[in-house]
Each structure stands twice: as structure tokens, then as C-alpha cells.
Amino acid sequence: xxxxxxxxxxxxxxxxxxxxxxxxxxxxxxxxxxxxxxxxxxxxxxxxxxxxxxxxxxxxxxxxxxxxxxxxxxxxxxxxxxxxxxxxxxxxxxxxxxxxxxxxxxxxxxxxxxxxxxxxxxxxxxxxxxxxxxxxxxxxxxxxxxxxxxxxxxxxxxxxxxxxxxxxxxxxxxxxxxxxxxxxxxxxxxxxxxxxxxxxxxxxxxxxxxxxxxxxxxxxxxxxxxxxxxxxxxxxxxxxxxxxxxxxxxxxxxxxxxxxxxxxxxxxxxxxxxxxxxxxxxxxxxxxxxxxxxxxxxxxxxxxxxxxxxxxxxxxxxxxxxxxxxxxxxxxxxxxxxxxxxxxxxxxxxxxxxxxxxxxxxxxxxxxxxxxxxxxxxxxxxxxxxxxxxxxxxxxxxxxxxxxxxxxxxxxxxxxxxxxxxxxxxxxxxxxxxxxxxxxxxxxxxxxxxxxxxxxxxxxxxxxxxxxxxxx
Length: 472
Known about the structure:
Elements: H1 2-46, H2 56-71, H3 75-86, E1 95-98, H4 103-111, E2 120-125, E3 128-133, H5 139-154, E4 159-163, H6 174-179, E5 186-193, H7 194-197, H8 220-229, E6 232-237, E7 248-252, H9 259-267, E8 273-277, E9 285-292, E10 296-307, E11 311-312, E12 322-323, H10 329-337, H11 342-357, E13 367-370, E14 386-389, E15 392-399, E16 402-409, E17 417-418, E18 432-433, E19 435-436, E20 443-447, E21 451-458, E22 466-471
Parallel strand pairs: 3-4, 4-7, 7-8, 8-12
Antiparallel strand pairs: 1-10, 2-3, 5-6, 5-10, 9-10, 10-11, 13-16, 14-15, 15-21, 16-20, 17-19, 18-22, 21-22
Helix pairs in contact: 1-2, 2-3, 10-11
């Protein structure tokens, strides 16, 4: 009898647990439905052009979001699947996330944000300056761009390469990036808000902004306010000192997006500027964050951008002057700077690209970064690995006596090879297994006296790479 009683109680508990679980699931989907409805309301209230919200593509996506709210297994599942849907959405700059900083505080947060020195780097190849900018966000990014141009002016610089291949946009660092190249002020483009489209059916023209005062400032808080209050916002770049008047090569990829695109487009108006690489992402809108119920936050576009040179950039991108695979853009720019004619340089680039297609990492170059070259900041002393075939890379370097730390990575640090957790020190003449994880531990080597060494990297199995160092 006791056993039967215990069994009945046990089954009742299971039944209650299932009902509780089911109720929680129903409540979750009810809450997510509220979030989906709130997203639709925010779009209808703040999106830059109401006409884009009645297209078949948008209405179908909106329906998929409402269905997702009924089937999502949790908050993060809803976020991940929502953002996946919008990857191929009818317009860019839509993203859902967890609310961490309230929307009303977000502008002040972005205005004061520092992203670190990694956002801007300046290197030299003989008398060519290579300025790499990986984001347009951060007031320190802006200041480091100013600093870089002062450094360029103080050195004997014959040519400048601006590498924006991994820059997905941000805020206002593009202003000094462009300003130090200009000889005269230029009307670069127009931000277009909802207030324009509520009263117009045609695209804006340069004549529509002739009497408008250009927008000036560094505050995203001010920009968000002004661009929503005015039908049109005039974008005008002015020259800045020191002025660089030599040849400029701007490198782009299909990852170059948003604020990067309007900087590239503005630079393209200068006669001494050549754009090399791939057509940019075509994601040129201005977004703003809005809070949602139940701890969510949505970014949505509040203005679109029209270039005075090429028109609307969203969905189209900025085409290069010289189209080439982005991985070859740097080498092609350096070849042109060294006096090679374009036809021969392109032919060499195509041959090199064919070779790279057969290499690991799609031909991405690998470098030896460490404290001996200030982790790549000393460009001329950063060894580049040469591909020898069959997964083998080699480079040579001369060390003085001392202890050195290093890793192996491509220039953009998309991945790196470093030390496994159980072994950091490298012994000359002994094979060592490497770890390929983001932010791996540094490898260490002790050098007893000045000598030259060969570093041989075997990535025939990219996930189980090995390193062998031999004394020459």
C-alpha cells in the first residue's frame, strides 16, 4: 500500500512539473509576442522611410518574427534567430540584443567610449605610410587618426595606404581620415530622415541642401537628435592640417561598411586617391537604439545616406577604382607605388591569387609577432612567413641575447597560433604543438647569444599545427 501511495505522489509531482514547464513556455512565448509587436511599433514610428515597411519582403519578415515568438525556446534563441533572419533583410542596421545600457544613456556612452590603440596603427614600408583603421568608433580612434597624420607629416612620406578592409563602421573617425587628404571642402552627401519621405516621393538632390548649414560636431547624441529633427542633413568635409598631398591608396573589402563607406566615397572625390579592392558592403544607414519590454533592445535605422557622387549607397556599396580580391589589395598598391604599371601589377596579382587559392587560409599571409617587433608596430622588423608548399611556412629572424615572447597570426588577427596551456617555452631544435584559439598564450624562447634562426610552421593540419625552430 505504501509503495502504491509513493507511486501516486511521484506521478502527481511529475504531472505538476510538466504543467509548470508548459506554463513557463506559454508565458515565454506570450512575452516574446509582446516583444515582436513592440518591434513592429518601433519600426512604424522611427524607421526613416515608411514606404519600406509595406514591401512584400518586409511584411513577410515581420510575419516570420511573429511566428518565431511562438516557437523560440528562450530569450537568446529568439535573439539569435531574429538576427539570422535580418542578415538577408530588406535593409541593414537592424539588430536585437539584451539591454545592457538603457537607450537614453547609449548616446552618452558611445560619445565617451574608448576602444583602445588597436583601432589605429601606422606602419612604414620604406617611404610609404600604411595607416590601418579597424573601426570608426571611439574618441581615442579619432585622436589617434589625428596623431597618425602628424606622424606622417613629420616623416619623409612619399605615398599613403589607408587600409579599411576590416572596418565595419562606427561614428566620426572618418572625418579626420578624409580631412587631411582634402585640398578643398566637398559636399559629400545627405542624410535623409523620415521627415523628408513623409512629404516627398523623390530622392533628394544637391540643390535641396544648398541653403542648409553643414552638420558639424563629434557627438552621436547630437547627431541622432539633429538627423531626426531635420528632413535633410548636409555632410560637408573640410581640409585639415597637416595636409597630405601625395598619392593615396584606399583598400576596401566587402566588410567595409556603414561610416566607412561614406568616408571611402568622400575620399574617392580626390584626384590623388585610388580605391583598390572590393565593392563595400552597401550598409550605409544610421542606426539608433530603442528599449523593448522584458530586457531587450533594438537597433533600427533612422536615416539613410545619399552620396553626391554616386547616389544611394545602401544596398549598392562603393565600387573601387581597381577591382581586385581584397587579399591582394595591399600588394597591388605597393606595386603601383614602386612604379609598376597597372596592367603588369594586375597580372602579377592574378598569378599570386591563383597561388594563394591553393594555400591554407585562402592565401592569408602569416607574420611573426612578438616583443622583438613591438607586436607588429615595427613594420620593417615584422617577419612575414613564406609559403613553401604542402602546408609549410618559413621565415628567418635574427635575435639578440634575451627572452622573447611571440605568436603567429595574419595581419588582421582573425586567428592566432600560440602556446598550449601546458607548454609555453619553445626549445630550439624541438618540435612543438601550437594552439589555434583566439587570444592563445604567448610562446616564449630564450636566446643565449646573437644568431639567426629559421621558423618552420607546419599547418598541413590547420587545427594541429607544429613549429620547429632551427639555428642557421
